[in-house]
Amino acid sequence: MSDDPFEAIKATFFQECEELLADLEGNLLTLESGSTDIEVINAVFRAVHSVKGGAGAFGLEDLVRFAHVFETLMDELRSGRKPCDDPTVKTLLRASDVLADHVAAARGAGAPVDPARSAGLVAELEALTYGGTAPVAAAEPEEDDFGFTPVAMDLGAFEAPAGLPDLPDLPPLPDLAALAPLSAPAPLPDLSASAAAGGWKIVFRPHPRLYASANETGLLLRELARLGPTRVELDDSGLPLLDALEPTDSHLIWTIELDGDASEAEVREVFDFVEMDCDLSITPLSGDGPAEAAPTAVEAESDASALARAASSELDIAALLASVGAAPTEAPAPVAATPVVAPVVDPVAPPPVAAKPAPAAPAPVQAAPAAAAPVTIRVDLERVDRLINAVGELVIQQAMLAQRVTESGLARSSDIGLGLEDLELLTREIQDSVMAIRAQPVKSVFQRMPRLVREAAEATGKKVKLVTSGEDTEVDKTVVERLSDPITHMLRNAIDHGLEGPEERLAAGKPAEGTVRLAALHRSGRIVIEISDDGKGINRPRVRGIAVERGLIAEDAVLSDDEIDNLIFLPGFSTATEVSDLSGRGVGMDVVRRSIQSLGGRISISSVLGKGSTFTLSLPLTLAVLDGMVVGAGEQTLVAPLAAIVESLTPSEADIHYVGGVDPVLRFREAFVPLVDVAQAMGFRDQPAALKGAVVMIVETESGQRAALLVDAIHGQRQVVIKSLETHYRHVEGVAAATILGDGRVALILDIDALVTAKRSRTPSRSDLQMAS
Amino acid sequence: MPAASAIRTLVVDDQLTMRALVRTSLQQIGMRDIEEAPDGEVALRSLLVQPVHLVISDFNMPNLDGLSLLRAIRAHPPLSKTAFIMLTGRADRELVQRAVQFGVNNYLVKPFTTAQLKEKLEAVFGPLT
């Protein structure tokens, strides 16, 4: 073994810790919501116990010490010696945060744990455990001798120690009859017996790796011969002709008949070091049928696959359950005639339906939910992306083909037309399925939030309850990863600015504890994240005042409530009068908005004074396709991201004015917005477009500014596959990416922000425009 | 004197890490035939189709804990001769004493070294080759 196997297990441990910590927090939150289920308390104990156990194995002393104190209190709680009341659960939640910090520190992924914080919680936990009195023996007993005499196993009969007292409080034993499968168990090779008089038939087929690791088949054969007389047969029928022979390949199969009374274990030992690198079958020589051969016919191949399976234990268990669960449904063939081999488990078998082996008998224990979990495989992300890319090409090809066929005048009802229709459906289905591979539940982001809320509540002295829903809503992996920061920021914001302090809430007739909701849901092909609070809502006069003060709007600007609320997303806007420790970390809501928009999303807010505010994020489910508006501008076809378009209209000459006699602006809803002639801005033509027949799209940039884009025509709305222009050509100002249309032409996807900003640099500043209005 | 490579073992623990640690140590001792189960119930189901010589099991697991697994094994004649080693924490004296009453063969305190595991195995099986 070249690498230290324990290092690899350590990585597994930290991975498992993540799950344990998530379970721990989830169960603690269940307790916090008033549950007193002993199973939940037990699960919390187990999680802490497991973290401690693993940490002990790797000598992570700090982690062990903290986990031990935690575990000791949990032991008191699960035994009922101490009550699991609300203050206790609150302490446990904070302890779970510190435990997570200890794990991160041990992993080297986080800053060292603040010793004072850790010690403070240790003191709190111990106070709860020992009820204020100093612990008598907080340390674990060093000695591990329990006055125990090992019971030797002579592999003979096991006699239970006599004279044992009765143990009345035992839970009922599982009903073995209910668990027992109909088929006979695989017999166990007898360790003591040297058995199988009459010798063995050994079929040995080396893999190339056996030779590559410098093993010599001749030596193995010689070793076998020492166990008894052998007859060796060589099957060289697989050997290719000399000029086709690859010298590192393996083509030979040996069949060895070994006489004498060697045990199977002895035979197996010969192949001990090469077992993984060959196909090996060892059967008794005297065996004349598969049934009799069975007892020892444990195929090396299935052994090897068993080992491989065991490497991924979830798979293993699910498969094992499946094999057990499936047993009774098999035809009850006579046992003797059934070749009994170690259960061959197909690692790619479909996830087992949690089938109970004996439906008639009431099962005494519940099936492990984990065991029925879907079978998963880990795949390199790059492979998935390659597949997504290929499917993107397929979609384009399919669209091109369909267009060609239409152009060639073939009827839709023709064989080819119908076939194409099927192809289109199939292509869509493939595309959806492939996109689904990259989809992940938002749970990974959501489950980090309870802690954040606890810390924010602690820092502000407010009482906050977080309610989440829709954790299983799925969205593209990249979107999930980039959701964390905006959600973090908005939650902090809701607690810091949205919620009132307990006294203020009580005075307003609300419960002292504020509620913040975090919800995810699918709505019309997009994912929507809502963050709402039941706080004081947006103080519009104040927001408006600040916006005027910062020069963001004109003093006499007429704004709807909605528009006022959305002012908080403008750069340079921050309602915090003093920079608070919590949300005033130099980033405002404009940063949140920008990061959401960079994902093709939108953010909006609605608020009711005295009742609270709701932030709504709407994001595309994937970054590989885009909802776009296909437009024509100066002989070219372009795509404008639908998310940026507010509305479209046909302008009239009277609505267009010229600032300084040069730069056109469009009067839109009693305000002037800069007008950009797309074809001119992109350099498709020199002359401004004729207004007659032209269409204007009102767009909104990431910074919330509006502009009017003048195009020649709008062709329609379409989902397009995004192709990077940079990887195929180079970056072009005003162009975000490219796509291929159904007719095979390349269409550029507009970068709205760049277009508008480029225009702005040549136009009067926004405040000038607003003055003009 | 049994060959370690011939002993078929089932490792039962709800923690993947612990199963991997036990497995790796067993492999270093020379064991080849090692199965795993995440709790007592899965272990029992597995044992009924594929008995083993040795069960190494944790105490505290969901569904069916280590003590119940031990009792079930001892109570079921085809399995009752299975050697059983209990994994325990240092403070689990009481549990070990109960396990003795149910016929546990030996116990192993976590954290353990490969040498300690081997010692515990040999106390049950005699010297291993």
TrEMBL record, chain A:
Protein name stated in the entry: Chemotaxis protein CheA
Entry-linked Gene3D superfamilies: Histidine kinase CheA-like, homodimeric domain, Histidine kinase-like ATPase, C-terminal domain, HPT domain, SH3 Domains
The EC number on file is 2.7.13.3
* UniProt keyword annotation of Mitochondrion present: no
> Its catalytic activity?
ATP + protein L-histidine = ADP + protein N-phospho-L-histidine
Which residues are modified to Phosphohistidine? H49
Q: Which residues cross the membrane?
A: none
Q: What is the lineage of its organism?
A: Bacteria, Pseudomonadati, Pseudomonadota, Alphaproteobacteria, Caulobacterales
CDD domains hit by this protein = CheA_reg, HATPase_CheA-like, HPT
Q: Report the residue ranges that make up the Histidine kinase domain in this protein.
A: 420-623
Instruction: List residues of the HPt domain.
Output: 2-106
Instruction: List the PANTHER family hit by this protein, alphabetically.
Output: CHEMOTAXIS PROTEIN CHEA (PTHR43395:SF10), SENSOR HISTIDINE KINASE CHEA (PTHR43395)
Carries keyword Membrane?
Answer: no
The source organism is Brevundimonas guildfordensis
Q: What does this protein do?
A: Involved in the transmission of sensory signals from the chemoreceptors to the flagellar motors. CheA is autophosphorylated; it can transfer its phosphate group to either CheB or CheY.
**UniProt domain CheW-like: residue ranges:** 625-761
Kindly state which keywords UniProt assigns to this record, in alphabetical order: ATP-binding, Chemotaxis, Kinase, Nucleotide-binding, Phosphoprotein, Transferase, Two-component regulatory system
Q: Which InterPro entries match?
A: Bact_Chemotaxis_CheA, CheA-like_dim, CheA-like_homodim_sf, CheW-like_dom_sf, CheW-lke_dom, HATPase_C_sf, HATPase_dom, His_kinase_dom
From TrEMBL, chain B:
Query: What domain of life?
Result: Bacteria
As stated in the Swiss-Prot or TrEMBL entry, residues carrying the post-translational modification 4-aspartylphosphate are D58
Q: Which SMART domains match?
A: REC (SM00448)
Q: Name one Pfam family in it.
A: Response_reg
The residue ranges of the Response regulatory domain are 8-125
Q: Which keywords does UniProt give here?
A: Phosphoprotein
Protein name per UniProt: Response regulator
Question: What organism is the protein native to?
Answer: Brevundimonas guildfordensis
